[in-house]
Amino acid sequence: MSLNLTLTREDIVRLCERVEGAQRRAYAIPKLTDEYPSMTIDDGYAVQHELRRRYIARGARLTGWKAGLTSRAKMLQMGVHVPSIGFLLADMARPENSAIKTSDMVHPRVECEVAFVTKKTLKGPNCTRQEVLEATDYVLPAVEIIDSRFSGFKFDLPSVIADNGSSARYVAGGRARYAADIDLRTLGVVMEKNGEIIAVGASAAVLGHPAEAIAMLVNILAEQGEQLAAGSFVMSGGITEAIPVKPGDSIIARFQELGSVSMRFIE
Ligand code: OOG
Ligand code: MG
Hints:
By secondary structure, the chain is α+β, with helices and mostly antiparallel strands. The protein is built from six helices and twelve strands.
């Protein structure tokens, strides 16, 4: 399998440093394709790979992965019609019901997602929903706090992939369930901000079935020569559009069968 790379090693390192600076110091930068218009999806993953290598070399621990842009609501909101993946690190996790700082993010948004915890290695290509379900230990509800480092939260696919799919924080909680005990396609979800309902959806919005998003993620990993380790925490992508949050806001995501996940935001 050959990757479609247009960036040189120097470009990759340069763009990685640019994205990393924006992530660590929380400032907005222009999307990368403004300077590199012919950047490809594989170039985006090469930058993301370098970013992951650096964080891990400095002591960060990989907890899992996230699929993104897997629902129509998200694709329409972002104007990007192809799903993407990103990595998750232990220091992005926040406890349920906690106060989450916003001053170390650019323009955070929240989204409700079904998360999977795996008990077997998953490998692509051709990973299927069925294989994902067989390898799943349990599922649980999660809220992802995304934070694009690109100005105006505007980007294209290569840029958002290089920015690790806008990954910033995540909160998992609620009630863990065995996938076999519930219908993962028809889980309703209601998101409330400051006591008002601001988004509603159902889990089938994610590629027809959220396990489909995990299979897609495993197949994208395979294209990059990687596999999904047993014990990974994997988010399947926002069911509804993402909702902006600011200090003072409190969020509750209520999931049918899976309980709820809450958090509040502070300066
Ligand atoms: C890209 C990340 C998308 C999801 O769940 O769809 C994502 C973005 O919208 O900034 O995490
Ligand atoms: Mg997400």
